[in-house]
């Protein structure tokens, strides 16, 4: 029995032993924060003192790129840094802090520009921010997609949270709704992470869909080749539970790609342990930390970093992952879909992707 | 002139409160995304280095190699710089891939440079930002050399993907 998700619970569920930590060599990971969302070193130290006793870990960030401000810590920043350093334990960790200090700066764009200007970067970056696709211009999204390609071709893995609104909902007039995809989650050149919850919230059980887990189909980016077969398989196998086709674009980039627990986390923020924190903001650094461990193993064997993971992930067809097959995420609250978006199913689905990491099996699959 | 981002939502989220027009002499910082080259080759290279079935798998590029691939053409760089200089905009810095230019100028100059733009100040939680309340356009001479201009419309969401509940949730 447990009272919420802590590093020990995550490590138990995903089969990380105390020996599964970074060796500290030539490997690093990062989280990006925007708009004066700061982590506090004291929160991280307290979190690790409370929850990090069962595995070797670091309690300090190695590098802050940007301005680390004072004032209150942000919950988002606290969560991201505490959990990427819990699964990616003992891995050198950076924080990119992009406060957008100039009144006309766009912090997300500043971060993207920064990546184009730094030759040495961590191999894994996790980002927990996103916007509705329909709130952004196509030109902007296409260009940022190119920036993600630039990072991927350098061997950098970019992980984005899939969002916390399930399939989302956009009202397009009287009695006409459609699902509402999120960007950058919908970019074909990032790895998007959805969310799950324990079947029994007080035990380490198998995982089911977390109803908030963002997922669906892009209206901007076409479906990349690497996922066509998986998505086609899903659409053919679940015809009975699919929402009406007017709600989504079956030829668009489908997401998420994988998932992890996203519910009932403990976070220390402003020196206060806070229970029941949830969101794909939690699952994304958790997956990022594990990919960092795998990168560490690969680098120690003289192999290159994983880089853009999706082509390889989809070729694994779920190998190394726990398939999540129960539950649906939320969608439009109308008569046609009655609040329901897509439902999880065996193999890939647009709620939890291929599933959640079984670390030793995923490591074995990605070490070859 | 023409619009680079004709479909950009220019309305700020409701939690930002409008304060008023900015003084014409106040500085704004804009990011110009210059058109890159060889994007098809970039995409193909990414496919090859990311596909475990490819002989190129894992052969990642350095930042310098990426820069060589995507760097905007001489013409693009020249046209954009000339356009900026013609408006007295000289306080600019570029990046190693040379595909972004970040420039500082007064709001008055920015509104002439980008016809249609109207800079206003907005506040939320004691934080102040400057954004344009109307879509911007660019002169036809530079239209084909730019992807978009940053610093006019977009604000990051507030803790979009994290929430604290009042009780634990049950499994499905």
**Span of the ends, CA to CA of chain A:** 37 Å
User: Using DSSP, what is the number of strands of chain B?
Assistant: 8
Query: What are the secondary-structure elements of chain A, in order, as H or E?
Result: HEHEHEHEEHEEEEEEEHEEEEHHEEEEH
Helix content of chain B: 25-40%
- C-alpha geometry of chain A: globular
Uncertain residue segments of chain B: none
Description of the structure:
The complex is a heterodimer of chains A (368) and B (172). Chain A has 368 residues and is α/β, with parallel strands linked by helices. Chain A has helices at residues 7-13, 41-51, 75-87, 107-115, 138-153, 225-237, 280-300, 310-316, 359-367, and strands at residues 28-34, 63-66, 92-98, 124-127, 131-132, 157-161, 170-171, 177-178, 182-183, 191-198, 207-209, 216-222, 252-255, 258-261, 265-269, 272-278, 321-322, 328-330, 340-343, 356-357. In chain A, strands 1, 2, 3, 4, 6, 10, 11 and 14 form an eight-stranded mixed sheet that branches. Chain A is globular and about 50 Å long. The mean pLDDT of chain A is 95. Chain B is α+β, with helices and mostly antiparallel strands and 172 residues long. Chain B is 26% helix and 24% strand. Chain B has helices spanning 39-50, 63-70, 74-86, 107-113, 140-143, and strands spanning 17-21, 27-34, 92-94, 100-106, 119-124, 127-132, 146-150, 163-164. The N and C termini of chain B lie far apart (54 Å). Chain B is flat, with a radius of gyration of 20 Å. In chain B, the strands form two sheets. Chain B has a four-stranded antiparallel sheet with strand order 3-4-2-7. In chain B, a hairpin with a 5-residue loop joins strand 3 and strand 4 (100-106). At the A-B interface, helix 3, helix 4, helix 5, strand 16 and helix 7 of A face strand 2, helix 1, helix 2, strand 6 and strand 7 of B.
């Amino acid at each position: 029995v447990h009272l919420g998700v802590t590093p020990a619970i995550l490590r138990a569920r995903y089969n990380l032993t105390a020996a599964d930590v970074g060796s500290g060599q030539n490997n690093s990971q990062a989280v990006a924060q925007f708009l004066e969302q700061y982590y506090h070193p004291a929160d991280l130290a307290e979190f690790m003192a409370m929850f990090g006793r069962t595995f070797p870990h670091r309690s300090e960030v190695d590098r802050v790129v940007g301005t680390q401000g004072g004032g209150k810590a942000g919950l988002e920043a606290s969560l991201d840094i505490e959990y990427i350093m819990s699964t990616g334990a003992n891995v050198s960790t950076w924080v990119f802090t992009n406060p957008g200090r100039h009144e006309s700066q766009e912090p997300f764009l500043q971060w993207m520009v920064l990546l184009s200007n730094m030759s040495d970067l961590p191999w894994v970056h996790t980002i927990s921010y996103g916007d509705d696709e329909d709130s952004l211009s196509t030109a902007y999204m296409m260009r940022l997609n190119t920036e993600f390609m630039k990072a991927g071709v350098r061997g950098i893995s970019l992980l984005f949270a899939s969002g916390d609104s399930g399939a989302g909902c956009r009202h397009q007039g009287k009695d006409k709704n459609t699902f509402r995809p999120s960007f950058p989650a919908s970019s074909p050149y990032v790895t998007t992470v959805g969310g799950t919850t324990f079947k029994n919230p007080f035990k380490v059980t198998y995982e089911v869909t977390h109803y908030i887990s963002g997922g669906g189909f892009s209206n901007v980016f076409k479906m990349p080749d690497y996922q066509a077969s998986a998505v086609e398989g899903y659409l053919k196998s679940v015809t009975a539970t699919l929402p009406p086709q007017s709600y989504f674009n079956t030829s668009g980039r489908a997401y998420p790609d994988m998932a992890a627990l996203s519910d009932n986390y403990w976070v220390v923020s402003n020196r206060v342990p806070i229970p029941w924190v949830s969101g794909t903001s939690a699952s994304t650094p958790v997956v990022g930390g594990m990919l960092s461990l795998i990168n560490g193993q690969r680098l120690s064997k003289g192999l290159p970093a994983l880089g853009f993971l999706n082509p390889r992930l989809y070729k694994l067809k779920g190998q190394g992952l726990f398939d999540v097959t129960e539950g649906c995420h939320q969608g439009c609250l109308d008569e046609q879909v009655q609040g329901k978006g897509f439902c999880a199913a065996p193999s890939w689905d647009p709620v939890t992707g291929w599933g959640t990491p079984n670390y030793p099996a995923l490591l074995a699959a990605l070490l070859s | 002139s023409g619009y680079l981002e004709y479909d950009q939502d220019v309305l700020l989220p409701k939690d930002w409160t409008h304060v008023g027009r900015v003084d014409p002499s106040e500085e704004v910082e804009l990011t110009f995304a210059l058109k890159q080259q060889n994007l098809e080759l970039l995409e193909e290279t990414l496919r090859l280095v990311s596909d475990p079935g490819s002989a190129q798998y894992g052969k990642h590029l350095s930042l310098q190699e990426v820069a060589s691939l995507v760097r905007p053409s001489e013409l693009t760089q020249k046209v954009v710089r000339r356009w900026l200089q013609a408006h007295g905009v000289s306080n600019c810095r570029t990046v190693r891939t040379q595909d972004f230019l970040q420039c500082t100028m007064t709001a008055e100059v920015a509104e002439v440079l980008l016809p249609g733009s109207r800079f206003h100040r907005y506040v939320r939680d004691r934080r102040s930002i400057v954004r344009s309340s109307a879509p911007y356009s660019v002169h036809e001479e530079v239209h084909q050399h730019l992807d978009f201009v940053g610093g006019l419309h977009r604000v990051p969401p507030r803790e979009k993907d994290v929430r604290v509940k009042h009780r634990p949730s049950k499994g499905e």
